[in-house]
Amino acid sequence: MRLALILLAILIAGGGGYYYWQGQSQNGFEVQTAPAKRGDIRRAVSTTGTVTPLVTVNIGSQLSGNIGSINVDYSDKVKAGDVLARIEPSTFETKVKEERAAVAIAKANVALQGAEVEKAEANLIKANLDLDRAKKLVERGASSQATLDEAVAAQAAAEADLAIAKANVENASATVDQKEATLENAEVDLARTYIRSPIDGVVIEKAVEVGQTVAASFTAPELFIIAQDLSQVQIEAEVDEADIGQVTAGDTVSFSVDAYPFETFPGKVDQIRLAPTDLENVVTYTVIITAANREGKLLPGMTANVSIVTGEHDDVVTVPSQALRFEPRGAAEALVQQSDDTSTETSGGSDPEQQKTIRQLKEYLDLSEERIARIRDALAAEFERSSEEQPGLGVPSRGEEDERNRLRRNNVLRTQLSAEEYRQFEMGQRQAHGRRGTVWLYENGKLVPRDVRLGLADATDTEVQEGLEAGTDVVIRVRESSE
User: Fold this and answer.
1) Where in the cell is it found (predicted)?
2) Cβ neighbours of residue 18 closer than 8 Å, sequence gap 6 or more
3) How much is the pLDDT for 265?
4) CA angle 258-264-270, nearest 5°?
5) Pairing label, strands 222-227, 29-35
6) 345 and 376 in contact (C-beta within 8 Å)?
7) What is the model's pTM?
8) For the CA atoms of the chain, what is the radius of gyration?
9) What is the pLDDT of residues 307-322, one digit of tens each?
10) DSSP of 103-147, one letter per residue?
11) What is the mean pLDDT of residues 362-385?
């Protein structure tokens, strides 16, 4: 029985190898393919962030003094107006008593000055009567002019005394206002000995104990931190500048925390803050994510492992992303099928880069066949000349070869196209970047290119929006057979 199972496993492995490796005995090449499949694809940006309450309030004291009592502890729920703690109030109560006494004294002084006004008014009445009598006596010749002059002076002095008395009343009244304001200030300070919660929430930080001295100078010391509502939390996630362009407000988010490694929490992107953070030449942007926390599992300060879903398509055609990176190179170029169209396009050379450039020129620009032919010949000559000038450089890496091909192509196009045509070509490439691609099929022992329109991509697969049907095998790799 065991031997039968081993043989069955060998047959399955052999069958799988036959499925993925084709053409080994036909032309000396091994061609690895994979089928295009229908499935779901999900593009996501991964990062980390810190769980924080939506609103937190730091509560301090505007007064200096010793803490006399504390009424709350960590995690206590409080209502707006609840007393959290109180500063020992005796000094402030004494100040209030002093200011109340000062107000009483000031009001008594107002009454005293009012009496002085009444006295001055009475003296003025007497002075007016004396003046009238003196005038009549002088008119009759029964009194001297000096007596009249004295009566005039006494009347003027009485008027002045009345004005002074009235001014003293106004001064005393102003003093009352001043003392009352000082009393109000003392009463406000006494009320501030009660440290109250400004919001409904939960105490998440307590930085003071009974008997501790609070020193309020230029800044209020922090005594408590209250989170307004922990049934809703937010995550402040840092997203790299290379990925921030994919993230938009409203994107779906899933995240986990180390406390519950097997549970996933949902959320959404609420805000993208434009202020960048530059740390050791790494630029990131803060993304605010909101999430429900009705069960209270998410606690402030937890580290969240975040996945921001920037695109999601269901039941679409996908191919391995490796297939889009494949290009026939070296000896494998011999497998490229020369169709009627490509045979005329590549009379000056069969390099896939040249073929791709010709296809792009036809797509992006309205050029005559004569100009296309001239550009094709110029490309072939440039590629041939460049290869002859660099015979001893060895085999370049994939990135180096791609960059060389790009420079060769650009050298030719700048001489063959006008400035406006070259600009349109570059613009067409930029617009097509990330949307167009080429996969290769293996048909009848030949490699056949297939242009496709691309959609979303995840870590392994890429969506094909048009140009390819599910079930079609695409080439991933070609190598010369070892046999």
Assistant:
1) Cell envelope
2) none
3) 94
4) 100
5) unpaired
6) yes
7) 0.54
8) 47
9) 998 888 888 899 998 8
10) HHHHHHHHHHHHHHHHHHHHHHHHHHHHHHHHHHHHHHTSS-HHH
11) 85
In sequence order, the 6+-apart residues with CB closer than 8 A to the CB of 307 are 44, 45, 46, 253, 254, 255
What's the chain's average pLDDT?
81
Residue 348: pLDDT over 70: no
* Whether the domain at 60-88+195-224 and the domain at 90-192 fall into the same CATH topology: no
List Cβ neighbours of 298 (8 Å cut-off, separation of 6 or more): 51, 230, 233, 257, 265, 291
Higher-confidence position of 180 and 342: 180
pLDDT of 27 strictly over 70: no
Token pair in block for residue 66: 């010793």
Angstrom distance (rounded) from CA 343 to CA 367: 19
Residue 400: the pLDDT is: 62
Q: Which stretch of DSSP H or E encloses residue 224?
A: strand 222-227
Lowest mean pLDDT across 52-66, 248-262, 334-348, 467-481: 334-348
Domain ranges across the chain: 22-38+320-388+397-480, 44-54+227-316, 60-88+195-224, 90-192
**Alpha-carbon distance values, 399 to 71, 406, 410 (Å):** 68, 11, 17
Q: Which residue has the higher pLDDT, 372 or 390?
A: 372
Cα dihedral angle (403, 408, 412, 418), rounded to 10 degrees?
20
* Closest of 194, 250, 171 to residue 69, by C-alpha: 194
| pLDDT surpassing 80 at residue 78 | yes
Mean pLDDT across 212-232: 80
**Environment class of 410 (CB within 10 Å of its CB; exposed 0-12, middle 13-18, buried 19+):** middle
Q: Tokens at residue 454, please? A: 């691309």
Look at the block and give the residue holding tokens 């496993």. Answer: 9
Three-class DSSP category at 351: coil
How would CATH label the architecture of 90-192? Orthogonal Bundle (1.10)
Element (H, E) at 69: strand 65-70
| Residue whose structure tokens are 């975040």 | 306
Q: Which CATH number fits domain 60-88+195-224: 3.40.50.720, 2.40.50.100, 3.40.980.10, 3.40.350.10?
A: 2.40.50.100
Highest mean pLDDT among 336-340, 413-417, 431-435, 442-446 belongs to 413-417
Half-sphere CA count of 359, side-chain side, radius 13 A: 17
Shortest CA distance to 236 belongs to which of 269, 210, 274? 269
Over residues 195-212, mean pLDDT: 87
